[in-house]
Structures are given as structure tokens and as C-alpha cells.
């Protein structure tokens, strides 16, 4: 499947965060489905009701366990600085604030269900039931959190898992509406209509948001992430066999302007893709040589052992400058994460942080943006 330039960090904590989050969503889906089955008092000779209740309880504990692991790996992962406060106090993080905040909301709801379940005899059945029903809101909130914050949301297998989770809950909910509240037909119809509307809105948002190019920037990814990576063991892919990306395009500067913009700045870039062999046998090189007219020239070179669809980064170099001095600033890649790159460059008595967001990629062309700011600025 062609792509212009995609990089994926291989930090164990980065992978653990994504894996535990997806597993927690699957477990939460099972918990919600079993909870709905329990609410209609489903039972068969081969499947007594106590089996459903026990599975629901044990699956709930597993969900909380993997959610806690997800939170722990998120907080300890150095790629972005997410404090322990941000995972329990919604919308306080500087990284994708809204979508990470929804994760905090889902986590708080899970904690509320856990605490009230442990103190059920003290809070009483009515209070426990109220919190437990509110806990069902955890699932849609967690689903939107995963789509909005996750870096794998557009991957086909992740989309398939998410779709199966959504279909499972929708099917269980439809069964609940058909089997329950026989004396409240109007309420059931209204609930079904509301659920359908929410599902359609969520699907439309996902298509126009997380599944569309440039979501990392629009989701609230900071221009310069505080985390860093040595670059070893990082995979980059370009087209079907690595490549060279070159090009130029119009920017946000006034027409015909060739002066290098004052810091900080953000410039749109365009480029094309061409393959290039690596410096050693079995190696490949991916070069991004992008431009914004004559004002900004950016070149990123990533080289290392070739792997299917790309190259494992063993070395990197970055140059930035105007057309008259394209190597005014030189440095290396510090972070590779999905379609977002981070780099540190220095020159002309300055040290800069760069954030490169590839917003559109094909096997022959790429567009994106570069944000540059002075280190410490």
C-alpha cells in the first residue's frame, strides 16, 4: 500500500500504550454487552444466568486492569509529557486536550463504578445502580477517545476491531430495546432514534476527522513535542521501496517573497517522491526534500537497513533554510510518530525545534507543514 513518508516510533512504552488501550476497549465492549445481557435476565439451560453475571464481573476487573496499564504507560512514556493529573482531571493536558480529556472522563467513570461496587453495601442499591448506569457512558466516550487520540485509528485492522466493537454494542442495545420495557413503546422508539443519531454523527465525525489527512495537527498535537527519541530502531516508509521527495509550492508569505521568514513560523510544503538506494548493501535511504516556494527549503534524510515498505532508521540528517542557503540550519530527527516528525537543528547562532506534519501522502506526492521555533521559545 503506497505512502509517501510514514514513520512509527518503536519505544516499548509507545507500543504498550497503544496495545493496552485497544485491549481495554475490546474488554470494555465485552463488559457492556454482558451487562446488557444481564439486564434482560438472559438464561438458558446450557447458559445459566450466574455464568453471565460472573463473566460480566470478571471482565469488568480485566477492563480496569488494562485501563490502569494503559494509563501507566501513557504517563511514563517520554514521547509526550502527560502528567498523572491529566489522566484523572479531564481537559488539562496540552497534548490533544479534548481527546485525551475524554479518556480521563472514561477513566473516572470506571473508577466510580469500581469504588461504588466495592462499597455497595454502604452506598445502597439505588446509588450503586445510578452510578452503574452512568458507567455505560464510559464506552462511547472511550471509543471517541481512542479514535481522536490514537495514532493507529486509520489502520485497517484497528478500524475492523473498532467496527466489531461498535456493532456488538449496537446489536446488544437493539436487543435490549426490543426485549425490555414492554409498557413503554414510545420510550423505546425515542431511545432507538437517539442512539441511531449519535451513531451517525460519530461515524461522520470519524470520517471527516481522525480518518482524514492532517488529523494529528488538528487534534491538538503540539508543534514541538517535549519527548525525544534516539532514532534507533525507528521505521520509515516511502512509497513501495523508499524514496526521495522533492518539490515546491506557494506558501503563506506574500507572493514572490523569497526572504526566510522570521521565527517562529509555520509554512506549507509540497513535494514529489522518487526511490533511492541506501549507502550500503541492504540499506535504503528516504529523503524528504520539500519546499515552500523559494522562502523555505527542508530536507530530511533517513537511512538504515531496508525492511518491507521502508527502512529502519539508523541515521538521519535535517537541513533547513532559504533557496539561497538551504543548509543554513543542520541537525537530525529526534521523534518519528505516525505522520508527525520532530527535529532539532542549529545554525546562524540559533538552535531550532522543527515539527513536520505530513498531511497528505501518495506514492508520488506529499504535502505537509513545517513549524519552526527557537529552542526554549
Number of strands: 12
Mean pLDDT: 77
What share of the residues does DSSP label as strand, in percent? 15-25%
Discrete helix count? 8
Order of adjacent strands in the largest pleated sheet = 3-4-12-11-10-9-8-6-5
Structural class: alpha+beta
Unreliable parts: 1-10, 224-235, 237-257
Sequence of secondary-structure elements: EHHHHHHHHEEEEEEEEEEE
Can you give the helix content as a percent range? 40-55%
Distance separating the two termini:
39 Å
The biggest sheet amounts to:
9 strands, mixed, barrel
What does the radius of gyration come to? 25 Å
What sort of overall outline do the alpha carbons produce when their principal axes are compared? elongated
Provide a concise account of the structure shown:
This protein has helices spanning 12-39, 49-76, 97-118, 120-135, 138-149, 156-179, 185-208, 215-218; strands spanning 6-8, 234-237, 244-246, 265-274, 283-292, 296-307, 310-313, 315-321, 329-337, 340-347, 350-361, 365-374. By secondary structure, the chain is an alpha+beta fold.
Amino acid at each position: 500500500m503506497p505512502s509517501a513518508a510514514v514513520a512509527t516510533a518503536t519505544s516499548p512504552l509507545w507500543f504498550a500504550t497503544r496495545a493496552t488501550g485497544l485491549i481495554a476497549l475490546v474488554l470494555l465492549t465485552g463488559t457492556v454487552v454482558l451487562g446488557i445481557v444481564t439486564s434482560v435476565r438472559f438464561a438458558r439451560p446450557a447458559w445459566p444466568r450466574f455464568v453471565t453475571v460472573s463473566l460480566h464481573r470478571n471482565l469488568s476487573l480485566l477492563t480496569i486492569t488494562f485501563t490502569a496499564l494503559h494509563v501507566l504507560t501513557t504517563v511514563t512514556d517520554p514521547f509526550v509529557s502527560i502528567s498523572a493529573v491529566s489522566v484523572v482531571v479531564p481537559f488539562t493536558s496540552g497534548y490533544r486536550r479534548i481527546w485525551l480529556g475524554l479518556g480521563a472522563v472514561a477513566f473516572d467513570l470506571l473508577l466510580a463504578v469500581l469504588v461504588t461496587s466495592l462499597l455497595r453495601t454502604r452506598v445502597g442499591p439505588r446509588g450503586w445502580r445510578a452510578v452503574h448506569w452512568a458507567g455505560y457512558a464510559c464506552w462511547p466516550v472511550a471509543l471517541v477517545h481512542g479514535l481522536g487520540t490514537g495514532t493507529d485509528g486509520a489502520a485497517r485492522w484497528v478500524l475492523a476491531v473498532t467496527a466489531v466493537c461498535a456493532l456488538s454494542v449496537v446489536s446488544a442495545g437493539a436487543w435490549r430495546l426490543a426485549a425490555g420495557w414492554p409498557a413503554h413503546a414510545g420510550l423505546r422508539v425515542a431511545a432507538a432514534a437517539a442512539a441511531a443519531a449519535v451513531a451517525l454523527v460519530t461515524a461522520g465525525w470519524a470520517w471527516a476527522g481522525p480518518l482524514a489527512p492532517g488529523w494529528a495537527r488538528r487534534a491538538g498535537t503540539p508543534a514541538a513535542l517535549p519527548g525525544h527519541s534516539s532514532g534507533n530502531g525507528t521505521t520509515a516508509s516511502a512509497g513501495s521501496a523508499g524514496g526521495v521527495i522533492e518539490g515546491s509550492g506557494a506558501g503563506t508569505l506574500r507572493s514572490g517573497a523569497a526572504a526566510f521568514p522570521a521565527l517562529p513560523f509555520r509554512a506549507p510544503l509540497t513535494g514529489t517522491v522518487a526511490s533511492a538506494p541506501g549507502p550500503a548493501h541492504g540499506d535504503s535511504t528516504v529523503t524528504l526534500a520539500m519546499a515552500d516556494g523559494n522562502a523555505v527549503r527542508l530536507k530530511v534524510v533517513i537511512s538504515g537497513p531496508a525492511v518491507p515498505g521502508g527502512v529502519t532508521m539508523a541515521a538521519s540528517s535535517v537541513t533547513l533554510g532559504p533557496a539561497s542557503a538551504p543548509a543554513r540550519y543542520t541537525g537530525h530527527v529526534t521523534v518519528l510518530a505516525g505522520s508527525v516528525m520532530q527535529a532539532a537543528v542549529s545554525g546562524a547562532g540559533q538552535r531550532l525545534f522543527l515539527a513536520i506534519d505530513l498531511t497528505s501522502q501518495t506514492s508520488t506526492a506529499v504535502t505537509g507543514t513545517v513549524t519552526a521555533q527557537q529552542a526554549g521559545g
